[in-house]
Amino acid sequence: MVFVLKPGVSQREIDRFVALIESRGFKTFISIGTEHTVVCLIGNTAAIDIDSVVQTNDIVEYGKRVTEPYKAVNRTAHPEDTIVNGGGVPIGAGMFQVIAGPCSVESEEQIIEVARSVKAAGATLLRGGAFKPRTSPYAFMGLGADGLKLLLAAKKETGLPVVTEVMNQTQLPLFEEIDVIQVGARNMQNFDLLREVGRCRKPVLLKRGLANTLEELLMSAEYIMSEGNSQVILCERGIRTFETYTRNTLDLSAVPLLKQKSHLPVIVDPSHAAGIQVLVAPLARAAIAVGSDGLMIETHNDPARALCDGAQSLNLVQFAGLMDDLKRRIAFEGKQFGDQVIQGGNPGGRFLRLPKIAKSVIFNNG
Amino acid sequence: MVFVLKPGVSQREIDRFVALIESRGFKTFISIGTEHTVVCLIGNTAAIDIDSVVQTNDIVEYGKRVTEPYKAVNRTAHPEDTIVNGGGVPIGAGMFQVIAGPCSVESEEQIIEVARSVKAAGATLLRGGAFKPRTSPYAFMGLGADGLKLLLAAKKETGLPVVTEVMNQTQLPLFEEIDVIQVGARNMQNFDLLREVGRCRKPVLLKRGLANTLEELLMSAEYIMSEGNSQVILCERGIRTFETYTRNTLDLSAVPLLKQKSHLPVIVDPSHAAGIQVLVAPLARAAIAVGSDGLMIETHNDPARALCDGAQSLNLVQFAGLMDDLKRRIAFEGKQFGDQVIQGGNPGGRFLRLPKIAKSVIFNNG
Amino acid sequence: MVFVLKPGVSQREIDRFVALIESRGFKTFISIGTEHTVVCLIGNTAAIDIDSVVQTNDIVEYGKRVTEPYKAVNRTAHPEDTIVNGGGVPIGAGMFQVIAGPCSVESEEQIIEVARSVKAAGATLLRGGAFKPRTSPYAFMGLGADGLKLLLAAKKETGLPVVTEVMNQTQLPLFEEIDVIQVGARNMQNFDLLREVGRCRKPVLLKRGLANTLEELLMSAEYIMSEGNSQVILCERGIRTFETYTRNTLDLSAVPLLKQKSHLPVIVDPSHAAGIQVLVAPLARAAIAVGSDGLMIETHNDPARALCDGAQSLNLVQFAGLMDDLKRRIAFEGKQFGDQVIQGGNPGGRFLRLPKIAKSVIFNNG
Amino acid sequence: MVFVLKPGVSQREIDRFVALIESRGFKTFISIGTEHTVVCLIGNTAAIDIDSVVQTNDIVEYGKRVTEPYKAVNRTAHPEDTIVNGGGVPIGAGMFQVIAGPCSVESEEQIIEVARSVKAAGATLLRGGAFKPRTSPYAFMGLGADGLKLLLAAKKETGLPVVTEVMNQTQLPLFEEIDVIQVGARNMQNFDLLREVGRCRKPVLLKRGLANTLEELLMSAEYIMSEGNSQVILCERGIRTFETYTRNTLDLSAVPLLKQKSHLPVIVDPSHAAGIQVLVAPLARAAIAVGSDGLMIETHNDPARALCDGAQSLNLVQFAGLMDDLKRRIAFEGKQFGDQVIQGGNPGGRFLRLPKIAKSVIFNNG
């Protein structure tokens, strides 16, 4: 259940209303939009009579039941698009970003060469795996903590904010300087990990699991938000089907559906979905046209010798060529790209571990 | 195995070469491109030494094994894009078409109203179901032969070529005046039907089955082509997955993959894939961006009262609004749309039933 | 909606009640059980008040709404198990049958050798494909009408009733002497074919489509029954999933579910599901344990040289060995096997094509 | 690559051979069977000439390449069935076990009542969730550490060894007294967790992920074994498909396939697969017939009031009735059930955390 407050209500009035609600045993999320503040109730709201709440609380414009199991993530609770701040780079609400870089960080030379090149081509965030989930225990697992250091060296060198995957919560202390924490497809329902990243003040890039429904993806985002972190980016990266020409089937319907049901930004990873390099460009174009807020594209200085996922990686020249095309398309969609910076604070920077969540959690876009 | 002939060889020389090949027990397909003629051999070619064929036949430029099980459909056999002539409207090779109309023809007023409106909005072909495959024997099955007549009345009224589905081969005589015969998803592997439409001189719009791989779709197109009909349009319309928010999952990777592996045009039906109207526009945009050669969009004068599939149909105003957007996008992709007409013959018009296929079949784009 | 009549009502009383119902615009199915006769109404029954029907018609014991979209197939409409008469061999209601034979009939020697051998091992029906649906137009398609003749020769030789697949309705006249007509997985939603076999007085073995839900399978059986043919055997043969070690994933949950929701017998084809011979025996054992009414097992005299599906075929020795095991298991389940014959008429023999269906259709188990 | 040693070789000879292999840079697993010892090499073995190894090492009977990516898990590396010791109860190699209990431990009374009842009915291990992975952050998550204590109280009361799920590696210290650690479907590819349980001296029950292939399941087992823990039980629990009548589709082909490819025991969980109680009995019967080594059946004292998964739980009377049936079937299959105890040590008891794995790891069945 949400209550949309009238414009211009004071913080004191909001606090009083929230205290009233919480005194009846509900947890609340408060979402501060540019016009309206919305108070979202979690708990069994069956007994609440919306009309009587509206009539007895002057500051409430209207109330609405949220029947979906996801509440904080729900667009009803936050009608405007959320903007995620990825190390100073805004994602969502018409601002488009391209995250590029190799599947795994392999060496300082490699990651810095790739970072410089993708930045020159227009990428606005750098990706690179340090901890790699691999099907086989005998495969290359990434450089681990050293990989994170090399990634941060590339960040220092180029100024690009960095995105990298965490595989378990004990690694989180190593992610202090990382701008966006990725939760991979195989961890989409690692609920303890979701809770822990929910207690970080860090943007989280949450990938859809290989066989998870969109509702499950939204529920996993709800795990993160329910701990107080509203900086969540959803990522479609392909699902398992019977088709064999591609590794996974990219589900582009996910983008408009997720944006209809939720206020969170949605990006697309065509590289992992397709598993073959030749599909990356057409799927990236389609992702822009279908309304995504960004792309994540695997790019490598030498795909043929990549330690993982070479088959799906663009080389640096291919990426630069593709970016020229994509920039025209982003402009065609009327979206901003690449030249904005979020003023002031840098939520993607150092993070505070939140104390065990208080009853009332505040989300905003600032 | 294909043999690409040198430019400028005479018909007599081609005939002699084909006779030689066929005397060794192979069936041949001959594809006539703007520069090269390609002779494609069907049969167990393991014993053929390509080099000796090239060396002993002056007119052969080079030969190549085709390892894929689809031969005539293969781009190797016909490197240029095939243009399908849909009742005078060209589809493929940079020419984009929009097929619109209701799920089923319900009455003369309805189909003419829809036809006029979608034509005014820019649609270039009219769809409308007369024979409807329905899961339940108690559901509305379409108007049958009467529906075909109403569809032809709308064609006469508007000049739009018409596309409609055949459900079994005994119905084919009724399709004499229909421009494009649709083989539906549930009939994609109705091999006897494929063979019969392969013996018509009619374009065939072949929809991917709900759980068929792209290779199986290409093999079904091969059935049609192997009977002598090269006028095949492939259509992606969504596949079955575990996702529940959409009826099916539209697989847009199919478009670039099919166009890489085959020379046939590929169109997209976002309406049936999604099953909900709100996804039609974004998926149509994505289909254009991913490289499709056309769209098939369900449009109804009164979706709320449609006898089938109302939930996924655009109304006439929505369709017109969408078309304005799509035309800009088709132009952005550098494709031609809507104002070309194929001069001369009208392959989509009356048809001859081919005699049982001769050994040698000739395909061209004329 | 169904009305269960009191025991011992006369035919005249039933006719009068049915006439009353039909006068209100409904189509009826009448199912005659050993104790009760059930009258099943098709049409929009929303306006019918069950209580008033019961109170004003002495012969009605009680009425019940059928919310499922399948009506005649529904167990509510026919609480007892239906027994299908496969050429004198009863299937269902505790009577278990094993159908064996090759994927395709290849020659007289082959089919007679296989028929003799599987009969000696205990098989009670013979299968063999004459019309083969093949993904490739260049693959072996079966011997066609000649294959049917060879199959009938094997029937004559051994006395085994025969099961074989029809691919389209124009072939049906050739099936006059065939005991059970198979509708294959790819034709499960070939609705025109379903209707035609529904108008035959022949048992139909209906295979589940590769990506069809159980409800869709029941609806396809409803197509057949709605035309007046209640002799339908449902067959689970595996569905498409992402798993690659098997060709399809055998869904054994289908057996108890179908038997709960419907009165029709359910058999299992482990050969096509698995696609590999080594899984046939364990899956056949599981199928018996899960409650199936029969098995269909591909058996060939020389699998390594089979013209199709050799990889999944048992050889004759393997089949005989498996049968020894299966017989013990069928007995363990308390089912009868192999030694019953239906006295009198032979519904699997010559068939009458029914006239276009009258309003009232009568089903029974006799 | 594996080398099978001659019977009767001494430990000294084995050590010398292993040292030789490891000096060439390979990691080795040593599997001690009742007749043969097998040395399994991990690493790039392309350069090894098997013949020359056999000829120059007297103790080697023969060598064989293992082309599958799973090595220690491979039946080639350990031709005999592995017996897992679940707190004194042997699983595998013809010894069948039934694990029963509620989805979650809810109170001391509940778990003890269930434990006593399922023990009386014949269950040989007790399950009960303390840490519950739930799709929604607002759902009941289990009693956590308190749940483990109650489970251990039930173990003390009844003597039944206990199985319960770990959700992340930081919880492992709490599992000291637990007999079998379950890794749930959603964690099947939580590779860091797999590695950690691989370093415990505890049996691990590894459930197949909802959309994971059998090869991926084997690779996840390989993660555990590669850390030195060979006590792994594989569990099939249903996969995601398009079917809607069941929660998941139980893939019983998995059982014979996994047992063919691997030496590990395989059990089946029909409760989670089906999601509805009525399917549990038939699927349990099928699981026995298909060759599984055990069953995991959700059982609750009051399913209608269960805090989770009540719809799929049997009540205590249903479970007892089912067990009578299952015992007859286990006997029919020639398997031992329920009355054996592993003498001596209790690997399921207290555990040592292994030091970071040494090069050579020894597996045996003792």
Q: What can you tell me about this protein's structure?
A:
Four copies of one chain form a homotetramer. Chain A has 366 residues and is α/β, with parallel strands linked by helices. The first copy, chain A, folds into two domains: 2-67, 2-Layer Sandwich (Alpha-Beta Plaits); 84-337, TIM Barrel, CATH 3.20.20. Chain A has helices at 11-23, 50-56, 108-121, 145-158, 191-198, 214-226, 254-261, 270-274, 280-289, 316-332, and strands spanning 2-5, 27-32, 37-42, 60-64, 84-86, 89-91, 95-101, 125-127, 162-166, 180-183, 204-207, 232-236, 266-268, 294-298, 336-337, 360-364. In chain A, helix 9 packs parallel to helix 10. The longest helix of chain A has 17 residues, at 316-332. The C-D interface holds C 211, 213-215, 239, 241-246, 249-253, 255-257, 260, 273-274, 278-279, 282-283, 285-291, 329, 332 and D 211, 213-215, 239, 241-246, 249-253, 255-257, 260, 273-274, 278-279, 282-283, 285-291, 329, 332.
Describe the structure concisely.
The first copy, chain A, has 366 residues and is α/β, with parallel strands linked by helices.
- Total domain modules of chain A: 2
Most extensive chain-chain interface: A-B, 35 and 35 residues
Gap between N and C termini of chain A = 24 Å
CATH topology of the largest domain in chain A: TIM Barrel
Order of helices and strands of chain A: EHEEHEEEEHEHEEHEHEHEHHEHEE
Order of the strands making up the biggest sheet of chain A: 7-8-9-10-11-12-13-14
Please count the helical segments of chain A: 10
CATH-level-2 architecture of the largest domain in chain A: Alpha-Beta Barrel
According to CATH, what is the class of the largest domain in chain A? Alpha Beta
Low-pLDDT residue intervals, each spanning 5 or more residues of chain A: 344-359
Classify the secondary structure makeup of chain A into a structural class: alpha/beta
Question: Gyration radius of chain A, to the nearest Å?
Answer: 21 Å
Classify the helix fraction of chain A into a percent range.
25-40%
